[in-house]
Amino acid sequence: MEVINTSGRRKTAIARVYLKPGNGQIIVNKRDYKQYFPTGILQYIVNQPFEITKNEGKYDVKVNLNGGGIKGQAEALRLAVSKALVQIDAEYRPPLKAKGLLRRDPRMVERKKPGQPKARKKFQFSKR
């Protein structure tokens, strides 16, 4: 099996993933993922697709992450890894889909409008 290349997005974060058979090493921007994502919650988000499909320690993952914040990057990585696992074996699709890991989260920051201080906030109205 050759290297599988997929991408995932969340907010403004983009994850490009290269997945190949190995011993479970996850490298994010040339650093170990436990060093890149310091909290346990973010590490859990990254490992979720492997836990659901029972593939912990079977694949090496090399990731290029850019844009967004650390949480958006972790969720973009989760989507990319899920898509890669589905490319490897179509049987992984139902459990991943049931947990919502194959859906790109569409929520984005609303843009600021002219004549307003923020996206929704308005300047104080003065009648006179």
Describe the structure in brief.
This protein has four helices and five strands; from the N terminus they run E-E-E-E-H-H-E-H-H.
Question: Any overview of this molecule?
Answer:
The protein has 128 residues and is α+β, with helices and mostly antiparallel strands. It has a single domain, classed as Ribosomal Protein S5, domain 2, CATH 3.30.230.10. The chain has four helices and five strands, in the order ββββααβαα. A five-stranded mixed sheet has the order 1-2-5-3-4. The radius of gyration is 18 Å and the shape is elongated.
Compile the SSE list and pairings.
Layout: E1 4-10, E2 13-21, E3 26-28, E4 31-32, H1 33-36, H2 40-52, E5 59-66, H3 70-88, H4 93-98
Helix pairs in contact: 2-3
Low-pLDDT stretches: none
Rounded to the nearest angstrom, the distance between the terminal CA atoms is 73 Å
Which fold name corresponds to the CATH topology?
Ribosomal Protein S5, domain 2
Extended strand count: 5
Q: Strand sequence of the main sheet, in spatial order?
A: 1-2-5-3-4
CATH hierarchy, class = Alpha Beta
Provide the number of structural domains: 1
In terms of DSSP E residues, the strand content is 15-25%
Order of helices and strands: EEEEHHEHH
CATH architecture: 2-Layer Sandwich
Q: Oligomeric status of the shown chains?
A: single chain
Specify Rg, calculated over alpha carbons.
18 Å
| Share in helix | 25-40%
- What structural class is derived from the secondary structure elements? alpha+beta
Mean pLDDT: 94
DSSP summary: helix tally:
4
Q: Biggest β-sheet, characterized?
A: 5 strands, mixed
Please state the overall shape, judged from the principal axes of the Cα atoms.
Answer: elongated
